[in-house]
Amino acid sequence: MEYHKLGDKPCSSHLFFAILLVFVFIASFADAAIHFHQFVIEAKPVKRLCRTHSTITVNGQFPGPTLEVRDGDTLVITAINRARYNVTLHWHGVRQLRNPWADGPEYVTQCPIQPGRSYTYRFTIQNQEGTLWWHAHSRWLRATVYGALIIYPGMGRPYPFLMPKKEIPILLGEWWDRNPMDVLRLALFTGAAPNVSDAFTINGQPGDLYRCSSKETAVFPVEAGETILLRIINSALNQELFFGLANHKLTVVAVDASYTKPFTTNVIMIAPGQTTDVLITADQQPARYYMAAHAYNTANAPFDNTTTTAILEYKSAPCSAKKGQPLKPIFPQLPGFNDTATATAFTAQLRSPYKADVPMKIDESLLFTVGLGLINCTNPNSPRCQGPNGTRFAASINNVSFVFPRRNSLMQAYYQGQPGIFTTDFPPVPPIQFDYTGNVSRGLWQPVKATKLFKLRYRSQVQVVFQDTSIVTVEDHPMHLHGYEFYVIGSGFGNFNPRTDPAKFNLIDPPRRNTIGTPPGGWVAIRFEADNPGIWLLHCHIDTHLPWGLAMAFLVENGVGELQTVQPPPLDLPQC
After folding, report:
1. What is the pLDDT of residue 327?
2. What is the spatial distance between Cα 333 and Cα 307, in angstroms, rounded to a whole number?
3. What is the pLDDT of residue 324?
4. What is the mean pLDDT of the chain?
5. Edge to edge, what strands does the sheet with 391-397 contain?
6. SS3 content of the chain, % helix, strand, coil (to 5)
7. 8-29: pLDDT as tens digits
8. Which positions fall inside the Plastocyanin-like domain (predicted)?
């Protein structure tokens, strides 16, 4: 735009600035775009580990399409279900202000999209930028139905770090050499734990260390000296992961679409649902370098102990003397599978880059025990009681094992005033106090099944302490809160002490996240302001634990006026 020299008359000057302000206001809206997409969910043949499976995909792609938008943009995504399963889609980490209808968890904010039906998700990105992702939120469909959601800064706004030469989404996944829905179905029938995965993947490919996989290993060519932003997403179904890149330092600059104070590390630990943005510089000898990921296992339970790889390849890397073949890649040093010390040291370094707006006047102080349990069977020898000692596995928060409704979704029942779908008496503290991480009496191992919500006043300031338990086993449970971001103000091992532990809280620059893990045999504390009305699911993002009941939901009441009230549901919202 060309600007002319202003005249001397005050009235002309004022008029010019008034017009300019109107123009800037209009331009701010003009910069925002509306992105229309069609997601066709259907089975397609996908070959991995020597075998071809009929795999549920989006638009025939595995992983699914990458969505790229800017802060302020609107997405209109029509999901067409041509698969044989009910399905919903969740836009993981998107705030969905006043718009729970677009959030996606089945039977929570919507009834599922039935085979042959469709539903259009409409939502706007508001004051968010960074790496998020989307995935199915119906049983185990997210094993293959997922993709990246990249939110760039608004027009004219730079990154708060060195502009990278290129950006690479890195989606870490899990692969079963069978239909994942059948794996889940068998586990829910027997009451036992489901079979662990057969491979981990990077951008859908297992990598060089698995059978029939090396020809499709993901390769990322780079120029020597350039800086690259890796947008790393743990889209694995059930496993926290360690990730590293041989001979290269990783500079962490963001987690869960929130910027951090940059710090350098050799390895990251990333839980299911979390994202981590790292900068790398191609400053090593031109060669081929493995990026690799394997399990961080905190439970006394079987796990997939394989390693997935991809290759960072310098374009100037020499070939080997053998027939011009590429050099064998250099392998990174990853921590041991149970290296909690490294995982804890990594998460302890995360800080907001500025003084954070942490809620200080707490209206609701909640203590949530999170962990597994066992349901006793009247006939322990039954084929439906194949858990430990003739039981069935369960999981709970504050001894309530969450039951998803089937007659209607929670949000639709709430909006329509339909009784009998849920109650609002979720306990704010454990019903019985005990030594949560000690030797727990077997009388406390069986949770109560119910559909209980906890009601929050609009704009109430909330603190939640997640306390892991040793029932069955201690474990890192990555807890994800829909519709919100929160500050992670503290964590520790053992039982949370409300008298002494708050003195250690970081209320200055804690990291902001949407998913946070409980230290195994420990606790983690978060704070947020309940400024988004609706019903919002809180659950463990290990998908084995979700159907077992490791979930609850907050019912955040409307405030005053239209801008503090849930918007009406769309006309095409699926019915149960």
Report:
1. 85
2. 12
3. 65
4. 94
5. 448-450, 400-402, 391-397, 364-376, 461-468, 522-529, 486-493, 512-513
6. 10, 40, 50
7. 323 333 333 333 333 333 344 4
8. 42-153, 167-316, 425-558
Q: Which residues pair with 89 in a beta bridge?
A: 136
CB 311 within 8 A of CB 218: yes
* Cα torsion through 538, 542, 548, 554, rounded to 10: 0
* pLDDT confidence tier of residue 31, bands split at 50, 70 and 90: confident
Looking up tokens 């041509």 gives: 82
Q: Residue 236 to residues 62, 167, 240, 529: CA-CA distances in angstroms?
A: 13, 21, 8, 29
Three-state DSSP string of 230-269 = EEEEECCCCCEEEEEECCCCEEEEEECCEEEEEEEECEEE
Characterize the bridge pairing of strands 400-402 and 448-450. Answer: parallel
Rg of the chain over all Cα atoms, to the nearest angstrom: 24
Q: How far apart are CA 496 and CA 21, in angstroms?
A: 52
Is 160 strand, coil or helix? coil
Provide the 3-class DSSP secondary structure of residue 356.
Answer: coil
**8 Å CB contact between 565 and 558:** yes
- CA 335 to centroid of chain Cα atoms: 23
Contact partners, residue 556, CB within 8 Å, separation at least 6: 456, 458, 483, 530, 532, 533, 534, 535, 536
**Buried b / exposed e along 506-525 (16+ C-beta atoms within 10 A):** beebbbbbbbbbbbbbbbbb
Distances (CA, A) of 302 to 21, 32, 293, 444: 62, 48, 18, 24
State how far the Cα of 334 lies from the Cα of 245, in Å rounded to an integer.
Answer: 9
**Buried b / exposed e along 419-445 (16+ C-beta atoms within 10 A):** eebbeeebbeebeeebebbeebeeebb
Distance CA 477, CA 396 (A): 11
* CB atoms closer than 10 angstroms to residue 571: 6
Structure tokens, 387:
């858990």
